[in-house]
Amino acid sequence: MLAIVVENVPARLRGRLAIWLLEVRAGVYIGHVSRRVREMIWNTVVKGCGEGNAVMAWTTNTESGFDFLTWGSNRREPVELDGIRLVSFMPEDPAQQKEPF
Q1: At 68, is the secondary structure helix, strand, or coil?
Q2: What is the pTM of this model?
Q3: What is the pLDDT of residues 50-73, one digit of tens each?
Q4: Which fold has domain 2-93?
Q5: Which of 49, 68, 88, 91 is deepest in the core (most CB within 10 A)?
Q6: Are 27 and 5 contacting, i.e. CB atoms less than 8 angstroms apart?
Protein backbone atom coordinates (compact mmCIF):
# COMPACT_ATOMS: atom_id res chain seq x y z
CA MET A 1 0.00 0.00 0.00
CA LEU A 2 1.22 3.47 -0.86
CA ALA A 3 -0.17 6.84 0.26
CA ILE A 4 0.94 10.29 -0.89
CA VAL A 5 -0.33 13.59 0.49
CA VAL A 6 0.54 16.84 -1.28
CA GLU A 7 -0.14 20.45 -0.29
CA ASN A 8 0.17 23.60 -2.38
CA VAL A 9 1.56 21.80 -5.45
CA PRO A 10 0.94 22.66 -9.12
CA ALA A 11 -2.14 21.17 -10.78
CA ARG A 12 0.03 19.36 -13.33
CA LEU A 13 1.62 17.30 -10.53
CA ARG A 14 -1.78 16.42 -9.08
CA GLY A 15 -2.90 15.31 -12.53
CA ARG A 16 0.25 13.24 -12.99
CA LEU A 17 -0.28 11.49 -9.64
CA ALA A 18 -3.86 10.68 -10.61
CA ILE A 19 -2.51 8.64 -13.53
CA TRP A 20 -0.89 6.09 -11.19
CA LEU A 21 -2.88 6.44 -7.96
CA LEU A 22 -6.46 7.00 -6.80
CA GLU A 23 -7.17 10.51 -5.43
CA VAL A 24 -9.52 9.79 -2.51
CA ARG A 25 -9.52 13.39 -1.19
CA ALA A 26 -8.01 16.60 -2.52
CA GLY A 27 -4.26 16.00 -2.48
CA VAL A 28 -4.48 12.48 -0.98
CA TYR A 29 -3.48 9.60 -3.28
CA ILE A 30 -3.43 5.87 -2.54
CA GLY A 31 -2.52 2.75 -4.47
CA HIS A 32 -0.53 -0.45 -4.58
CA VAL A 33 2.59 -0.27 -6.74
CA SER A 34 6.00 -1.93 -6.92
CA ARG A 35 9.12 -0.45 -5.32
CA ARG A 36 10.42 0.65 -8.71
CA VAL A 37 7.20 2.45 -9.61
CA ARG A 38 7.05 4.00 -6.11
CA GLU A 39 10.56 5.43 -6.57
CA MET A 40 9.64 6.78 -10.02
CA ILE A 41 6.50 8.43 -8.59
CA TRP A 42 8.51 10.00 -5.75
CA ASN A 43 11.05 11.41 -8.22
CA THR A 44 8.13 12.95 -10.13
CA VAL A 45 6.79 14.48 -6.90
CA VAL A 46 10.18 15.95 -5.96
CA LYS A 47 10.69 17.45 -9.43
CA GLY A 48 7.17 18.86 -9.69
CA CYS A 49 6.47 19.96 -6.12
CA GLY A 50 7.43 23.61 -6.61
CA GLU A 51 6.84 25.59 -3.41
CA GLY A 52 4.54 22.89 -1.99
CA ASN A 53 5.26 19.93 0.22
CA ALA A 54 4.61 16.20 0.13
CA VAL A 55 4.79 13.06 2.20
CA MET A 56 4.83 9.51 0.92
CA ALA A 57 4.21 6.49 3.17
CA TRP A 58 4.25 2.82 2.23
CA THR A 59 4.06 -0.56 3.91
CA THR A 60 7.35 -2.32 4.50
CA ASN A 61 8.98 -4.91 6.74
CA THR A 62 9.98 -2.66 9.67
CA GLU A 63 9.10 -2.49 13.35
CA SER A 64 6.30 -0.01 12.65
CA GLY A 65 5.16 -1.75 9.45
CA PHE A 66 5.65 1.32 7.26
CA ASP A 67 8.22 3.89 6.17
CA PHE A 68 7.88 7.40 4.79
CA LEU A 69 9.63 10.26 3.00
CA THR A 70 8.91 13.98 3.08
CA TRP A 71 9.71 16.86 0.75
CA GLY A 72 9.31 20.61 1.13
CA SER A 73 8.79 22.89 4.07
CA ASN A 74 6.38 21.69 6.75
CA ARG A 75 6.01 21.98 10.53
CA ARG A 76 6.11 18.20 10.82
CA GLU A 77 9.66 16.90 10.54
CA PRO A 78 10.74 13.24 10.55
CA VAL A 79 13.06 12.15 13.36
CA GLU A 80 14.59 8.78 14.21
CA LEU A 81 14.46 7.50 17.77
CA ASP A 82 15.93 4.09 18.65
CA GLY A 83 15.61 2.96 15.04
CA ILE A 84 11.96 3.99 14.72
CA ARG A 85 10.95 6.89 12.49
CA LEU A 86 8.65 9.37 14.21
CA VAL A 87 7.34 12.84 13.45
CA SER A 88 8.24 15.93 15.45
CA PHE A 89 5.81 18.83 15.39
CA MET A 90 7.72 22.11 15.20
CA PRO A 91 6.22 25.27 16.75
CA GLU A 92 5.06 28.05 14.44
CA ASP A 93 7.52 30.79 13.60
CA PRO A 94 6.31 33.82 15.62
CA ALA A 95 7.28 36.15 12.75
CA GLN A 96 4.87 34.34 10.42
CA GLN A 97 1.89 34.14 12.78
CA LYS A 98 -1.16 36.07 11.69
CA GLU A 99 -2.60 38.64 14.04
CA PRO A 100 -6.09 37.88 15.40
CA PHE A 101 -9.01 39.94 14.13
Answers
A1: strand
A2: 0.81
A3: 999 999 999 999 888 888 999 988
A4: Alpha-Beta Plaits (3.30.70)
A5: 49
A6: yes
